[in-house]
Specification:
heterodimer, A: mainly beta, Rieske Iron-sulfur Protein, four-stranded antiparallel β-sheet, three-stranded antiparallel β-sheet, 10 strands, 40% strand, B: 811 residues, alpha/beta, 5 domains, five-stranded parallel β-sheet, elongated
Chain lengths: 108, 811
């Protein structure tokens, strides 16, 4: 029995479509996904909902490998989705693959 | 092989461990760390020994770093091992049991030892000092079975010990060499009030008394105290609280230069460059500190140097004092005794048990001594630390912060009088009990700590003063707020003034240049410092520095105001609150077409469309065909006006046109915080100019200008700046004032905060008295605003379109 489905990678954009230290949004019925780009061109994807009160993380300020939620300034780690202490909570993260400058997300 | 350099810490107390915490926060993993502690306990909060003695808390409540903490941070901990020797040549320390630890860097934090008066009998059983939990426990045990206690020393520690023993049922006498209690913290009047109040609690005082001998029995136990004048007292326990001295024995034996403390420089480095020292064992610029906040400042600086960043420097601290005896309120700070060149304001109500003395020098508060009513201690201390010019504050100063017409939250409730369930932070719903609990359980000491852990004072900040009071009243005698000019954020050690200065003097034009020049700790700042730096760059170098949208809060990036559900609000410009049927029709059409859930009139005489979807913003702006009202930015907001002489039968000038002209002049102006103006056509002041950043009130012979008003968090009445004759002068003077604010204020300071910092006299000098300065400021304002595009128009034209359009839609 096949328990592990092969991951489905969806091409969403080029890295250059996302401003450095910025983000873009992939709209989805089951919740938008925010795609972030750091100063070093690393790309991360999180569910676009702050674990605190649902603020759109895509609208936050990106710094280092974190984003600050625009509503109440929670800091969320881009790699894990976890809130910085002492806040507690986690935004869902999605795997990202960058190939030849193209960004792929695994949205299963 | 482990290549980490080795750091050894001697002393497992508050200063040493705080240094490690600061170090771990900025350079985790840099060192292999070993800690030696002479006591068998992990680091605990020595400040809270008095509540333990008084039975208000127990030892577990006051542990700051449980054993797990050391393990989690990979710290090798040697408890109950006193370091006996430092071998500086071989670079290792040796403990009493023979344990050796080599070091590359050594931190000495051995604290202080009690001063035991050299009188016969001072080693008898029953003679205790009051320094650590062991002493405290000894006293608690003694109180359970013994009757007579004599406390030698009427200082802070002595009185706290006496109070605790009294609460545990002992018969307590306090012996003091001086004529009044706490003579180093209080003047004679307050000292007497304190004595009287403690006497009503049953403590007995013997002042001007020198101890000659402590007498004992054959078993070597204390039986009494004999004085130089021949009198004597029975005693089962004698508490030595005559003072403390820096514990330098180990450092001295290692040949380090000591003189009333281990002598360190501003980097907390001793004469041996590999060895640092912090805390009560240190002599910094001739001062040995015994309170906790200076130690924490030292810890921060020391950690910075241990982390090889090498940019911190400790410059000494201003101290304040509070007695940790429940129910007794006293506070002192700075030079409260006064002297040559100082003036005093005294309020004395001996019957009511209230005494306040404020010492003023050169129009600044330099000292305060409060007894009975200390609710304003934190406020006075802030004035003192910030060296604020008092000006008009002076005549109300002695009546406290509430005495200055404070209608805001800050003045309504006072920490001491509050119940645990009373709300302190209205924004985040944090009540006093939660804050007190966080302070004691998590070992918090500063406003920043409390903000992080409880969220109190982290939104609008209006309760910050109250939270400071709660910290003070919870931590008692040893609390003192952090350095007077705080760093911008955790990314840097520099404060706003230093950052502004560096940008101006070194012609820094980009974020990168600022971070590199000022040695930021983080690669690209954070959500706190980036917007500030963006503003400083733009305001200092208009037309040279380039705006960085990624360093702007979402509202200023998208040019609309984010709401709780991630929708936005749209407020078109409506100069002076004047509109016309055509604009109203377009607004109505837009509201219909985009299904706007709410249309509301704002407080600034404009119309707000609420609940707008992000992707609709550019289309709505195009359909409106109106300019941005900047209702979302740290920027010019609106100029509120009344009807004025055009229609009103009382109006003396055309206030409406004046408002429109001002709003036209200031269009698209960024500023340290939002800026609101109002123009009223007569002194009835229907436009409420008295609570605006710039308020203009028409009189028959011209216009009166007021500055620094604020209708928000804390209501502030604007102060009179000057009177001018013509409309052009109104523009020039208001423009010059706003440019001064734009060039000199710190980010997120409103005009009222800016004026409080520099003083109204300074502002008047720059704007009213010096015509050249005024004209130059006004020209710089016009230069920096000239040609700025309307942000909505450019976005309708396609600028920054990626901000509004999703990448891809996946069903």
């Amino acid at each position: 029995m096949d328990m592990k489905a092969t991951p489905v990678w969806t091409r969403v954009c080029e890295v250059s479509d996302i401003p450095p230290l910025g983000s873009r949004v992939v709209e989805r019925d089951s919740g938008n996904v925010a795609v972030f780009r750091t100063a070093r061109d690393n790309v991360f994807a999180l569910l676009d909902r702050c674990p605190h009160k649902g603020g759109a993380l895509s609208l936050g300020i990106v710094h280092g490998e974190s984003v600050t939620c625009p509503l109440h300034a929670w800091n969320i780690d881009l790699a894990s989705g976890a809130a910085h202490a002492p806040d507690e909570g986690c935004a869902r993260r999605f795997p990202v693959r960058v190939e030849d400058g193209a960004v792929f997300l695994c949205l299963d | 092989m482990n290549t980490q350099p080795k750091l050894v810490v001697i002393g497992n107390g508050m200063a040493g461990i705080r240094t490690l915490e600061e170090l771990l926060a900025i350079a985790r993993g840099h060192y292999d760390i070993t800690v030696f502690g002479a006591e068998p306990h992990p680091n605990y909060n020595r400040i809270l020994l008095s509540p333990v003695l008084a039975g208000e808390q127990n030892f577990d409540d006051i542990v700051l770093n449980p054993l797990d903490w050391y393990a989690e941070n990979g710290i090798r901990l040697h408890l109950g091992k006193r370091v006996e020797r430092i071998d500086r040549r071989r670079r290792l320390v040796v403990a009493g049991d023979g344990t050796e630890a080599p070091y590359d860097r050594l931190l000495i934090a051995t604290g202080s030892t009690p001063f035991i008066p050299p009188v016969p009998g001072n080693t008898l059983k029953g003679v205790v000092a009051y320094r650590d939990i062991h002493d405290t426990q000894t006293m608690i045990d003694a109180a359970a079975v013994q009757r007579h206690a004599v406390v030698i020393g009427g200082g802070l520690l002595g009185l706290e010990a006496a109070n605790g023993l009294k609460l545990r049922g002992m018969d307590v006498s306090v012996v003091h060499l001086a004529g009044t209690l706490l003579e180093r913290q209080l003047d004679a009047t307050a000292g007497k009030l304190l004595q009287r109040s403690l006497e009503t609690r049953g403590l007995r005082f013997l002042l001007n008394k020198a101890t000659a001998e402590i007498t004992g029995n054959d078993a070597g136990e204390v039986t009494g105290v004999r004085f130089a004048d021949g009198e004597s007292l029975p005693a089962d326990i004698v508490v030595m609280a005559a003072g403390i001295k820096p514990n330098t024995a180990l450092a001295e034996s290692a040949g380090l230069h000591c003189s009333r403390g281990i002598v360190v420089d501003d980097a907390m480095q001793t004469y041996d460059p590999r060895i640092y020292a912090v805390g009560e064992c240190v002599n910094h610029r001739g001062v040995a500190y015994g309170l906790v906040a200076p130690l924490f400042e030292q810890a921060k600086v020391c950690a910075n140097h241990l982390a090889l960043m090498g940019i911190g420097s400790y410059k000494g601290s201003v101290l304040s004092t509070r007695l940790k005896v429940t129910g007794i309120e006293l506070f002192s700070a700075g030079d409260f005794l006064g002297g040559e060149g100082t003036e005093e304001i005294v309020l004395s109500d001996p019957a009511g048990g209230v005494y306040k003395k404020l010492v003023i020098k050169d129009d600044k508060l330099v000292g305060a001594c409060l007894y009975g009513d200390t609710a304003d201690g934190a406020w006075y201390f802030r004035l003192l630390r910030e060296e604020r010019k008092l000006g008009e504050l002076r005549e109300h100063l002695v009546f406290g912060e509430t005495g200055i017409g404070d209608a805001g939250v800050q003045g309504q409730s006072r920490a001491a009088a509050m119940a645990d369930t009373d709300e302190v932070c209205g924004c985040n719903g944090v009540c006093k009990g939660t804050i007190v609990k966080a302070i004691t359980e998590k070992g918090l000491f500063t406003l920043d700590d409390v903000k992080k852990h409880t969220k109190a004072a982290s939104s609008c900040g209006s309760c910050a003063g109250l939270v400071e009071q709660i910290i003070m009243s919870t931590l008692g005698s040893s609390f003192q707020e952090a350095p007077k000019a705080k760093a911008v954020c955790g990314c840097t050690i520099h404060n706003h003034g230093e950052v502004r200065k560096a940008i101006r003097e070194h012609h820094l034009l980009t974020h990168r240049e600022v971070y590199d020049f000022l040695e930021w700790h983080t690669p690209n700042g954070c959500a706190t410092c980036r917007p500030a730096i963006n503003y400083y760059l733009l305001s200092t170098w208009p037309r040279e520095a380039v705006d960085d949208p990624q360093s702007r809060f979402v509202n200023e990036r998208l040019h609309a105001n984010i709401q709780k559900d991630n929708t936005f609000s749209v407020v078109p410009q409506m100069k002076g609150g004047v509109t016309n049927p055509s604009e109203l029709r377009r607004i109505a059409d837009v509201a219909d077409k985009y299904h706007i859930p709410m249309v509301k009139v704002t407080g600034g005489q404009r119309i707000d469309l609420l609940g707008v979807k992000q992707e609709d913003l550019p289309d709505i702006w195009r359909d409106l065909g109106m300019k941005s009202g900047h209702a979302y930015g740290k920027s010019i907001r609106t100029v509120k006006t009344c009807v004025g002489s055009e229609f009103c039968r009382f109006g003396t000038q055309n206030s409406t046109q004046m408002g429109i002209d001002l709003e036209t002049m200031l269009a698209n102006m960024w500023s340290p915080h939002k800026v609101k103006l109002a123009v009223s056509g007569c002194p009835r002041n229907c436009a409420e100019a008295g609570i605006k950043d710039v308020g203009v009130i028409a009189v028959d012979s011209g216009w009166e200008l007021y500055v620094g008003g604020n209708g928000g968090i804390k209501t502030e009445v604007a102060q009179f700046l000057c009177k001018v004759k013509t409309a052009d002068e109104v523009k020039e003077y208001s423009g010059a004032f706003l440019q001064l604010y734009r060039e000199e204020a710190y980010y997120l300071d409103r005009t009222v905060h800016y004026i409080a910092r520099v003083g109204l006299a300074y502002v008047k000098q720059k704007i009213v008295e010096d015509a050249d300065s005024r004209r130059a400021l006004y020209e710089r304002l016009l230069y920096s605003l000239d040609g700025l595009p309307d942000p909505w128009e450019t976005r309708v034209g396609g600028t920054q379109s990626h901000q509004y359009i999703p990448l891809k839609v996946i069903a």
